[in-house]
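S.,

Sequence below, as promised.
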Amino acid sequence: MGQSGSNEGPSATIQCVTRDFLQVRFDLEPFPDEILQKILSFLPPRELVTRCRLVSRRWKHLVDSPTLWKLKYGFDPWNVIHGGDGWVVENNRCPVEGAESQTCFVTSFFWCSKSQTIDLLKEGFCEHYLDVHQPPIAISDWVAGREDCGCMYEINVHLLAADRQSIKTFSNPTLQIDQWNNQIYHQVSHVFENYGPGVRFVQFSHKGKDTLFWKGWYRARFTNTSVTVRCNVNENQRVACEHSAFHWSRHR
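The prediction came back faster than expected:
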């Protein structure tokens, strides 16, 4: 990212050098949000958070938006196990207020699970920072049932060391939603704090199924799943990894 002066903060321009060694600046402000987000998605996470996020209120909103992180990570991170008729993606039957993504993963009549492991070093954190400052790591998941069918839901999150041994674990007692429910989403959340040195990965997994074994997709619905490392931007290291329907954004 270019800067307009040695004593100024980040600017909304990029600087390129031509074959003739001419410096050319491009103003990115005229671009619509969807184009600017596509451009920003090619930058490393640390640059997005410690530089781009400080350019303006508009850029802060774009960097904090799950849309940019969906563009950046695509379909790759989820490891999926299909039970029954497998996973499908549908629109939310009941909206999650304030959520950008109003689509959901829907499970089937046997356990359907998804898991993902986040490498904190690849996301821009150094070992010293993680070990000394131990920034809070917040996880959040939203789950709902279908009105005419009960369902079950489980979540497990591990903070892992470099050798993949678990340092801290969060698991929620099996959540059961009865038949003839109101379809409203329930948030399951937890914040890891004071977890000690050595954390290098966050392993997130959740699964669901119905309670009536009906063929099709009448079961637990997941949406707007997120893992966020909460750090002070003044500490010059911060990253928010929003994994809310990352891998299904192209279906919306």
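The helical segments are 33-40, 45-50, 57-64, 66-73, 127-133.

Coffee later?
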